[in-house]
Amino acid sequence: MGSRAATGEEHPGRKSPTRQVQVVVRLRPCLGDAQGEQQQPCVRGVDTRTLEILSKRNRAETVQYQFDAFYGEDSTQQEVYVGSVRPVLAHVLNGQNASIFAYGPTGAGKTHTMLGNPEQPGVVPRALLDIFRMSREQCNQLGGPEWTFSISMSYLEIYQEKVLDLLETQNVDLPIREDRYKNIFIPKLKQQTINSFTEFELHFLPALQNRTTASTKLNLHSSRSHSVLLIKVVKMERTDPFRQLTGKLYLIDLAGSEDNRRTGNEGVRLKESGAINTSLFVLSKVVDALNQGLTRIPYRDSKLTRLLQDSLGGTAHSVMITNIAPEYKHYFNTLTALNFAAKSKLIINHPFTRETIQPIGECQRNWRIKAAP
Ligand code: ADP
Ligand code: MG
Question: Which residue range is the domain that position 261 belongs to?
Answer without folding.
Answer: 19-371
